[in-house]
Amino acid sequence: MDFTAGIDVGSTYTKAVILGPDGMLLGRAMLPTGYRLDEAASRTYAAALAEAGQMDASQVAYVVSTGYGRNQVAFRHLKVTDLTAHARGARHFFPGTRTVLDVGGQTMKATRLDESGWVQSFRLNDKCAAGTGAFLEKTVHYMGFTTTDIGPLAAQATSTVPISGVCAVFAESEVINHLSQGVPPSEIMFSAILSLVERSVQLMRRVHMEPEFTLVGGILRFEPMARVMREQLGENVNVPPGDLAQFNGAIGAASLGRLRLAQIGAGLMPAVTTERVVSGG
Known about the structure:
This protein has eight helices and ten strands. It is of the alpha/beta class.
């Protein structure tokens, strides 16, 4: 059977998915990456195979790796960049996507796609934590809550306070100051989201964004982020259902595996090699 797998080795979490011949998601798994990236990839892949009905790796025809540690996945057939994988994942869910925003734990990326779904231009914000999901996580932890409280806290807010977000250190000082003045944690949390959204929109403008917009990355599982983005852009904004925004890169990688298998079947690409490693984008 033409099963494919996508493995996204991120700086914080490693995600793996198994897709069926029809593109249906059969299994998925997510585990902390840690410092042994190769082991994280193997463990997460094994967990995804188990969720897919105790599948064996020999049943998977093609494996594509992506993410920060894509070079460390020894059993891959192909490696692709985060930008390519997230573009393909966004189009898997929303075929009309033209602009993708990926808000990860350590970086934020904006990408504009052409009509075929390939990357035309991109910009990255990886210089300051104030423009990443780590800022929201650090804010909520400082206030004594957990990451899962980000969405519920922000949803309770009735007003906002200024958080510049120009620098993570300055933003944290503002959070501390607001707490000392008795500002409710819900208002601080929602204001931190507003700050992150403002930086996101600025990054999207730099790639000359155009609709449709699709938002991906782990922080997008919190509904207030997408809601504020819709208000800021004045356009409909797509978000993969449930927690699949966090698996978008892995799903995109597996989708590219399906495309490569089709090309091999049509004689447009050489057959899968025995050493199971082929360089890619």
